[in-house]
UniProtKB/TrEMBL annotation:
This is DUF6308 family protein. Residues 154-181 are annotated as: Disordered.
Length: 181
């Protein structure tokens, strides 16, 4: 199976202000993504294996952020688009909402695996109550919930969220981002 950068991917990247030569690395990124089944979800028992360091998704991440013009937010959103049930959207809003976990992918897998918290069940119920189709993964439901909740950036009078400089985050992986200082 050949994974291609479709028109929607390119439009999405341009809307995220990515300026790069897609052909330069896309075949190698596609090679790594092809090693991760499309149907794997973050709620699956083997999600941790697919999201582990030095696995194909990490290699795809590294190739993307090494490409001039693609920053960590763009790379995260592209991978989330290609594996929507497995890879979380990771941007400044999500990072702030989750209080900068040291290894986001592993941190989220742990929360989804925690039977006591039943995160997946609660998100599935929220999806159902909202009348959203079951084809929308619980991970995408989590994205919406996180984006819709008030944060210090959107709540009047609240303390401002920590914002790193570009140099702080330029080459770090989503699971390796930590607050500096």
């Amino acid at each position: 199976m050949r994974l291609v950068a479709c028109v929607n991917d390119l439009v999405g990247a341009l809307s995220l202000r990515a300026r790069c030569d897609w052909r330069a690395r896309w075949d190698r990124v596609a090679h790594h993504l092809a090693q991760v089944p499309r149907e794997v979800a973050i709620t699956d028992a083997d999600a941790a294996v697919h999201l582990g360091e030095d696995r194909p998704l990490w290699r795809a991440w590294d190739l993307l952020v090494a490409q001039r013009g693609i920053e960590w937010v763009t790379a995260a959103k592209l991978l989330a688009r290609k594996r929507p049930a497995l890879v979380p959207v990771y941007d400044r809003v999500v990072r702030c909402a989750f209080s900068h976990p040291p290894r986001l992918w592993a941190w989220l897998v742990g929360h989804f695996a925690d039977a006591e918290s039943d995160l997946a069940g609660r998100l599935a119920r929220a999806r159902s109550e909202a009348g959203v189709d079951d084809r929308v993964s619980v991970l995408r439901v989590l994205d919406v919930v996180v984006w819709m909740r008030p944060t210090p950036d959107t709540t009047p009078g609240a303390a401002p969220a920590w914002r790193p400089s570009r140099a702080d985050v330029r080459h770090r992986r989503p699971g390796a981002l930590t607050m500096q200082g």
